[in-house]
Structures are given as structure tokens and as C-alpha cells.
Amino acid sequence: MDPVSALSVAGVALQLVGLCVSVSQSLSSLKDKYDEAGKTIRGIKRYCKVIEFAVRKVQHWIETTVASSGVVAPELAALQFTLQEYTEVVQDLKDDVDKIVGSADEDTLRRGQKFKFVWNQDIMQQHLQELHYLSSALHLLLDATQL
Fold this sequence. Notes:
The protein is mainly alpha-helical. The protein has helices at about 5-35, 40-70, 75-105, 110-145. Helix content is about 90%, strand content about 0%. Helix 1 (about 5-35) packs antiparallel against helix 2 (about 40-70), helix 1 packs parallel to helix 3 (about 75-105) and helix 2 runs parallel beside helix 4 (about 110-145).
């Protein structure tokens, strides 16, 4: 297998890990500001940690096993496509969290800002569900690679 291809997939994995870490950090500050959002935030943070761990395992597998074993290019291309799709899901979540956190950074929260999060609760629940599916898919991927 081409080492450049393995590095490309590893790079996508690293980007996904970075997004998961960023979302968790942003949600920590948001949780302090919106008590009613606690369960959703804890769920999203939990899935982000699981996804981060799983993707780090995949990244390690790519760097240690795939690069030296000569995995067929279509399998590597499928893995890269999958990780890019996962990255888009987490990037959408990060964008929504950044919008909320950006408005919550002020010292004094206005009523409109709290309402904005309540109104976005449905969106955050959708993100939570997407992360659940992503986590399940990564579990299947880890099983397939026998990590």
C-alpha cells in the first residue's frame, strides 16, 4: 500500500479526533450556562469521547498495521470516505455548538439567548442521535479491523 494513502487516511482521522475534542471543550463551558441542557450536553460529550477513542484506535491501526501490510486500495479508499463522512457530521455539530457558545460567552445572559438554546434543543437532540449512530458504526469498524 502507498504510504501516502495511509497518511491521508490518518490525517482525516486526526481531524475527526480534533473536532471531537473541540466539541467536548465547548460543551463544558455551555453546560455551566444552561442547566436545562445538561442531559443533552452530557450525552453529546459522552459520544464525542467514545468516537475520539475509537478514531484514535483506527488511526493507530492505520499507522501500524495498514501501512506495513499492503491493504488493498479500495478498502483504504472506503475507510477514508467513511472517516470524511463522520468528520462532516461532527463538523456540523461543532458549527451549531460554536453558534450557541458564541452567544453564551457574555457575562450576562439575556432571555433571548436562553430561548435560543431551548429552541435549538431539537437540533442538539438530532446531533446526539447522529453521534449515537456514528458511535455504533465505529464500533462495527473496530470489530471489522479486529482492534
